[in-house]
Amino acid sequence: MARTEYYDDPKAPKPNSMVVAASAVVTDEQGRILLQRRRDNSLWALPGGGMDLTDSLPGTAVREVREETGLDVEITGIVGTYTDPKHVIAYTDGEIRRQFNVCFTARIIGGTLTISDESTELRFVPQEELDTLPMHHTQRLRIQHFLDHRDQPYLG
């Protein structure tokens, strides 16, 4: 199922759902950031996804990282909350969602890096290469907030 992301676009369709989601900035020993190239839109993104009714929000981030990358992680902190109503995601099945995302930081505790059916590529990306990758600006914002080493989580 393909998806199209809109931001502050008057032509964007009206949302018909709200999804609570979590994502994670996972780094390796060199400080590179784990990104996946999404199968549904070919853009690079942090691992993450929607919360199940049986999950906690941090547990959602842990589960999504495992499902999408094969890595086991533990949550180490929070980057921020991302709830901008200007960001709309339309799926080919008719769902048009707004997303309430909490972005965490996480460290690897096990697993093996493995591409899932949700991605076409996984990479640990050095900071100096981030600008060269096609990525939605909402993902760039989360990464930038992480790189800023903010004293407080972003609340937006």
Explained architecture:
This protein is an alpha+beta fold and 156 residues long. The protein has 2 helices and 10 strands, in the order βββββαββββαβ. It has helices spanning 57-69, 137-147, and strands spanning 3-7, 17-27, 33-38, 44-45, 48-50, 71-82, 87-91, 96-111, 119-125, 154-155. The chain is globular, with a radius of gyration of 15 Å. The two termini are 28 Å apart.
List strands and helices in order, with pairings.
Layout: E1 3-7, E2 17-27, E3 33-38, E4 44-45, E5 48-50, H1 57-69, E6 71-82, E7 87-91, E8 96-111, E9 119-125, H2 137-147, E10 154-155
Parallel strand pairs: 2-8, 6-10
Antiparallel strand pairs: 1-7, 2-5, 3-4, 3-9, 6-8, 7-8
Q: Which descriptors would you attach to this protein?
A:
alpha+beta, 10 strands, 156 residues
Q: How many individual helices?
A: 2
Largest sheet: 7 strands, mixed
The end-to-end distance, rounded to whole angstroms, is 28 Å
Poorly predicted parts: none
Full CATH superfamily name:
Nucleoside Triphosphate Pyrophosphohydrolase
Give the C-alpha Rg. Answer: 15 Å
Q: What proportion of the residues is helical, as a percent range?
A: 10-25%
- Beta-strand percent range: 35-45%
SSE order: EEEEEHEEEEHE
CATH fold type: Nucleoside Triphosphate Pyrophosphohydrolase
Give the overall pLDDT as a whole number. Answer: 96
Structure class: alpha+beta
Tertiary shape? globular
